[in-house]
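Appendix B.2, paired examples.
Example (i):
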Amino acid sequence: MGNCIETAKKSTAEIAPSELMKSPPVIKLYGPPNSFATSHIRLALQYKPVTLQFIPSDTHPNPTLIYQSDVVTGSVEDILQYLDTKFPDPPLAVANNTAASTASIWGWSGGETTPLVVWVVVLQHRSVNWHLERMVKWAEDIAARGGNARGDPSMGTPRMEMKKFGKSYSQLLQVMLEHAQMEETVLFQILESADRGLCKSANEDHATHLPIMNGIKEDIKTIGVMNAGIPDYQEALVNLTSRLKRLKENCRKHFEEEERELLPLMEATELNKPQQEKVLQQSLDIMRETHSHLFRFLMEGLQPHDAMRYFDLIKRYCDNVRVSLMLHMMVD
């Protein structure tokens, strides 16, 4: 998942799965710039192999899409279906993604009976895993260069690049902290109420990961004030890379265990639909920063069908103002 550092033209911190989806066909979209429907379609078009020309227009009450001789207007669902017909890879309409979004997870096949919060957790796992892999590759690249500049003006000097690295890691750290808090205060509480001690191992993992996560943050701060090229600088880069690899592997194993041993048991709690919706709302409320200024960061770590599936989940159970803000962060 994602791109290799060596071939990236953009900052490593900005690499996302959707980077592979861009190609020449031009689509024009007319619609009110502050419309929820217009923003939703603009988000979807980011994942299609097209070039979007968005023309803000209050004279078009509904989003209107023009491609070659086709003029398409109507609901968001109608336009997404049209886009999937014209550009089937990747499919974005949630109805077309049942197989992708309910794929087998470590031998357990989720389905319509799977509580909504389970899919939120699984998709967050995928995003965190992707970002951790990206950070490891970036750290390896810096270490291989001995901290020297890449020759990429967008990255600047070694110290400037390390600041970018630190900012990206801080964003990931915040998402991971909120994710762990959400699991401990919502998901694990539900499971523990059904069978006390069920989540003991998962809670212990969280406690083990925290010192590593904070240690990486301190390592980055230390490297940021060191002079590039000295032996201590190179040693610090190697240690940073080693810690990131350890965190990545620990998280991968932890997520696998949760998805194999804990998440399937959520079906046994037999939450009804109103209860599921309440649990999902509680989970999103706890992860407030993730679903505000860090929303773009989270979505960058998801493959297109996963990103649209995630957005479909939260748009149904978040208030419209909050969802609109998240949309604008993605498309503006």
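Example (ii):
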Amino acid sequence: MRSRTGSGVRLDRILFMVDQTICKYQNAITGLFANQKDFPDHAWVRDNVYVIHSLWALYRAYMKCAEFDEDLTKANELGLTCVKMMQSILECMMRQADKVEVFKKFQRPVDSLHAKYSVSTKNQVCGDTEWGHLQIDATSLFLLTLAQITASGLQVVRNIDEVAFIQNLVYYIETGYRTPFQDFGIWERGDKTNQGIRELNASSIGMVKAALQAMNDVGDLFGDGSRRSAIHVLPDEIEQCSAVLSSMLPRESFSKVGLP
């Protein structure tokens, strides 16, 4: 008779909790996770990336501590769920590729990528001015997670078109340290008064720096060593983000003293 070790039992217990709190509320087609209480069909980019991190961490744990074939099956299912969610978020963003091109030129908030999308259709759920969409930290968190998941052996990017768009996202975030490049931040409402006034946020700059470093270190997105899927990052932009971040800390921004 087979018996489970303590680590295996704990992993199974965590998997049950994840299934009841996360997987239960995912869309069966897109895999996206929604805020069921307040916005039933709205999928925030940041929230979904947080969900991906929890699933990916459990996937890594099962891969490391697998005792039976069933554990590898669970790990494979978790890994595929992470890939599906990442691909769905990427598809949501790619539907606004024209906005990325315009934003790189003018850096206007109305041209920024949306912060949330429809769970079922992957389209936008509100207008360009109806929400604080300019959240550089959310886009940077997505790129950071993409680099980490790719480095772990899971392939998210499937073709050259997606590679080109990821490269565009790098250009989209890399000037996050500049003063005119103020965003709404992790609060989605701008400064401390919650009046939609954009400002430079240390959390956004730090996330940009982490994302640029991760994308620079990951090598290629196909995982086969080919140059066609390599992402190019300017080292100067990383250093600029680091310098501005060091000058801002420990303040989060001009109006907010502490980090979120």
